Amino acid sequence: MKLFLQQTEVKPRHDRLPTAKLRDTADFSVYYSPKEKTPAAKELPIEQQHLWTLAIALLTPDTEEKQLLSLRKWYSQLVQPGLQYFIERNTKKYPDDPFVSVFAHLVFGQRQKAAELAQQQKDFMLGLYICHSELKDLNYIIEEQFHSLKDQPQQQPSSEKQTSWHHMSVHQKKCWYLIAGQFGYSTTDHFAVTDGLYWQLILGLYIWYGTSYGEPVDLNRDYNKMLEKEAAANAMLELQHMHLGEASSTEPSLPDSGILWYQLLQWWCGDSKIADLQAWPLELLWLLSLYKQPNNIDPLFANLWIEELEKEDFANFAIYASLFLPDAEQKIEHILRNGEWSDEDTLITQYHIPKRLIQKAKALNAHDEWDFEAEYKHLLDGQLLDEAKLALIYFVIPKLFESKFILPAISF
To answer: Which among 56, 92, 129, 186 has the fewest CB atoms less than 10 Å away?
Structure first.
């Protein structure tokens, strides 16, 4: 919460709760940093670590273009551990195809290495487009070059010029399909770029090489459309097998919707159906509700996080966090009345909580303890004169009358 205090500001208003907002310089990345040992980074399961780092990748950049570059970098790091195994497996499977390694590095988002390997194999145009398409929208140019290659007449390969399409290896062709953003089945070459790829890698293709340059939301939407088409095609194929009395051999590479980072990516891009928010860390949900605008996060999660702060004896922080709620006054009155808070001076001078609310809470707390004189004094201190009159008439005076006249008479 100390980090949150530094990232936010409150502006006082006369006899009302202050307006609370994020600073213009607010940086979401400060909340999770394993190197700095921030509270959120302590002993988190790997799945929650991915959730935090993806949120940072999406929230930290200030433009859509930078956001996409940040997402691409994050996703490359996510799938990186599987690269070496992928290369070894496919090199054994296709020992005579020198572009297996180029394709592997492309599939894992390693553009620079893929570009170097492509140039080593003398496909300089491929290497050039791989390298420059990351920072520039070259989709139209690449598509033209791609179709130009495919339309070339058959010719003998030459070391002095670009190899014709008909003499390219399968994985060299796949590299061209990939950077052209064409991931579907090719009826002329009889393969799809996505053949044999896990769903994580297929999703990566849309993130790294999708044709909606600079817009993560559209890239994810394209991926979801592909899933819908694949699901429909698989359903039709399944029906055909059932009709023929055969077992289906299709194993669609569908995403695991239980993975938290995948839920966050879909939620971020507008598809919140699979997001099981109850499985996400409460602190992250609360921060997302503030940093990601607009959003559809139920305010219930913010209230649960504030209650968690109260349970951990951080009542003052809970009060500050409540300033960002739609029903801030009601929540703050509740916390103040519980009486677990401390340092009244901080509440008034730094959080700009009106003295009236603090004294009202003290009065209610005193009333619960049947200390009506203290209740009356707190109401006076808070300039709550109407409430003080009622307390005086209905509680203080009757109690004094009872103690001075009735009780002595009874004891006599």
So the answer is: 92
* pLDDT confidence of residue 160: 46
Tokens of 103: 């394709």
Residue by residue, DSSP assigns 130-190 as: HHHTTTS--HHHHHHHHHHHHHSPP----TTSPPPGGGS-HHHHHHHHHHTT--SEETTTT
pLDDT of residue 409: 45
pLDDT-flagged residues of the chain (< 50): 158-160, 232-252, 407-412
Closest by CA position to 16, among listed 410, 406, 328, 339: 328
Output the 3-class SS for 180-246: CCCCCEECCCCEECCCCCCHHHHHHHHHHHCCCCCCHHHHHHHHHHHHHHHHHHHHHHHHHHHHHCC
Residue 281 confidence (pLDDT): 94
What the block records as the tokens of 399 is: 């109690």
Same domain, 233 and 266: no
Same domain? 121 vs 229: yes
* Residue whose C-alpha is closest to residue 118's, from 132, 134, 131: 131
Domain containing 303 equals: 2-61+261-353
Q: How many CB atoms lie within 10 A of CB 93?
A: 10
Q: Quick one: pLDDT at residue 38?
A: 67
Residue 243: the pLDDT is: 37
In a domain, 406, yes or no: no
pLDDT of residue 212: 55
DSSP reduced 3-state for 295: coil
How far is 145 from 142, CA to CA, in rounded Å?
A: 5
26 occurs within a structural domain: yes
The radius of gyration of the chain from alpha carbons, rounded to an integer in Å, stands at 32
Whether residue 27 contacts residue 59, with contact meaning beta carbons closer than 8 Å, is answered with no
Same domain, residue pair 102 and 219: yes
Looking at residue 345, its pLDDT comes to 92
**Using an 8 Å Cβ cutoff, are 112 and 119 in contact?**
no
If asked whether residues 196 and 327 sit together in one domain, one would say no
361 located within any domain? no
Domains identified in the chain, total number: 2
